[in-house]
Amino acid sequence: MEMFNYYLKLSYRNLIRNRLFFILMITTLAVGVGVFLANIAIIKSMSADPIPNKSDKIFNVSLNIWTGNNPRAELIEIMRYDDAMHILKNDIATHTMVHYQSQVYTRDIESKSLTRHQAVVRATTPGFFPLTEAPFAYGSAWQQDHAKQIVIGDSLNQQVFGGGNSVGKVLEIDGKPFEIVGVLKPWELKPLFYHVAYGQKFKATDDIYAPIETAMDNEWAINVRNSSTDRINSVSDNRGKNGYFIQAFVQLENQQQKNAMQEYIDNYSQHRQEQGEYLRDNDNRLLDVKQWLEHKEVVDERMLAFALASSLFLAVCIFNASSLLLARYHSARFETGLRRAVGARIKDVFYQGVVESMLIGLCCAVLTLIFGWLFLQISITLFPALQQTSDIDLTLILLGIGIALVTSFISMLYPLIRSCRTPLSTTLK
Amino acid sequence: MLNMKNISRIYRSDTIQTHALRDFNLEVKEGEFVAVTGPSGSGKSTFLNVAGLLDSFDEGSYELDGVNIQGLNDDELSRLRNEKIGFIFQNYNLIPDFNLFDNIDMPLRYRGFNAAERKRRITHALEQVGLASRADYLPSQLSGGQQQRVAIARALAGEPKILLADEPTGNLDSLMARQVMELLHTLNEAGSTIIMVTHDPEQARAVGRNVQVIDGQITDHSVYAPVHDNASIVVKG
Ligand SMILES: Nc1ncnc2c1ncn2[C@@H]1O[C@H](COP(=O)(O)OP(=O)(O)O)[C@@H](O)[C@H]1O
Ligand SMILES: [Mg+2]
What we know:
The complex is a heterodimer. By secondary structure, chain A is an alpha+beta fold. Chain A has helices spanning 2-17, 19-46, 81-89, 128-132, 154-161, 212-217, 255-274, 289-295, 301-331, 333-341, 346-382, 394-421, 424-427; strands at 58-62, 79-80, 95-108, 117-124, 136-139, 149-152, 170-173, 176-184, 208-211, 227-228, 243-251, 285-288. Chain A has 2 domains: 2-47 and 300-428, no CATH class; 58-295, no CATH class. Chain A is 48% helix and 16% strand. Chain A has a 6-stranded mixed β-barrel with strand order 3-4-9-6-8-7. Chain A is elongated. In chain B, the strands form 2 sheets. In chain B, strands 6-7-8-3-9-10 form a 6-stranded mixed beta sheet, with helices on both faces. The two termini of chain B are 32 Å apart. In chain B, helix 3 (100-111) packs parallel to helix 5 (144-157). Helices cover 34% and strands 27% of the residues of chain B. Chain B has helices spanning 44-51, 74-84, 100-111, 115-128, 144-157, 174-189, 201-205, and strands at residues 2-12, 17-28, 33-37, 59-64, 67-68, 85-88, 162-166, 193-197, 209-214, 217-224. Bound molecules: adenosine-5'-diphosphate (ADP) and magnesium ion. Adenosine-5'-diphosphate is lined by residues 11, 18, 20, 38, 40-46 of chain B.
């Protein structure tokens, strides 16, 4: 312990005496580790499991039914209203939800101000809440399919009502009143697995959750991407027609339940084919959350390429720091030689170097966290889609500190070994 | 105390081999003061480096204070250097931004003494070289002769069996050189064994025993000079 303190004192003196050199060297390392860390932060939240306790039980339902004669090669994950109703009405899954997304303008009906808030609407079914484990702060979901009732998210509740229990209050949407029956707690889901379209997957959860029938009755159609083979005049016109715009998710507890559901959708599409619909190979799929996110390529390939580049960059920084240190050890070999001459063992010299690398590593860690945060902000400015992905949490902070320590040790290793091996008789006169 | 038999040290480079020491024999007894002279490049420093365990040798045997050096590992060699040997260099080799106290402290750290024991020894060593009042000076605040005395204090603090000095006065003017030599003589009279390489024939003559190194070999054994009578030298700071 006494030696450790001695080495710490020597290292501190060394850092202070050569501060310009060490600032340069530590900055070099910290930039490398910082870029790397920012990258890991992004990839980590991109590849995070949004619902870890049951991601293997929630499945996206993709039906392979397409009535056009030019089917796209890919799996079709959107379905028609009628298909969705079949998925919804069978009793196989523990929870089922179907949904489409739209956008409305809304205000507190009591408010004197006529300002309307733009709000993202999830037109869905009550199964949405237990399936996604959306946390209610107040109230609960609606009971009737066509109810003029909605559930709102925390941020809209804050915006419109300043928070609190807003159950029973009324929102005006396009001139019509909708009663609030439930308010959610602040809720994050990264990625937003139930809607991973480009530009959506790292968005916040929705503002308004409404019965899908109600949404269609009221023609909430902004942003609805409808692929159709029929002429469809409005959202409500989709009933009984070939307009594809709804996604379906089910919660299946075990293989048995999954098999039953698979059989159901296979039979269903078979049945539709017999009625004259075009059907590709019988390729109806149930993908669990992990497979689904993989299928949708949620972790951007460009990000992975960037990760590779940033680890190479880190390697370059290590080489750089290492060659800087090599030069410094060369100029410090007089002192090393002297220490050896008066009785320091190679071990002692090495140990002293390790203590020094720890001190450097700690300085480096502090800078790394600053740079890492900075690079993350820059990445977000460059790629706004990353907006919601970007937090540096405790694990990442520890990881950053760890990498900084290891990195400075690695940079130090070769120069240190070289310095331990310098023959004594040549360094002293 | 020190016994070298048939030592050879060969420096090899790609093109040439230099026999820095060949068939080198020397025995030094406890309490002796030996002056080593010889032309430049004859192997004096090599001999001192081998003796001080700073350099290895290729052939022969070397026994230091009863310990056979052959085959010792780095830990053992370092420990011998630390406990038995005090080295004094021509360039003093003080660490410029350490004060005198911390410079002398260095070998004691590797010995594992506690703070009180280190302090006692450092103070005593500084007293021995007449610099007790300047423990917190930096080397640059001292004259060359004083710096060399600090280096001697550093060598003494570990209470070594033998002091090895490679041209300790080579960088000093004659007055300061005399003071350093007086110090070495005092130490010798107090019992220290000293081997000193020197260019100065006068210095050599004042020393108990002379050996000459020529072409890597001892050629002239034990020319004993008349006994000096400077027992009453007082070293001033
Ligand atoms: N590290 C070394 N590598 C190669 N040759 C060396 C080395 N050290 C000394 N020599 C050679 O060994 C010989 C003896 O050198 P040295 O012991 O320094 O002589 P002195 O101290 O008597 O002047 C010289 O020829 C010198 O060039
Ligand atoms: Mg020499």
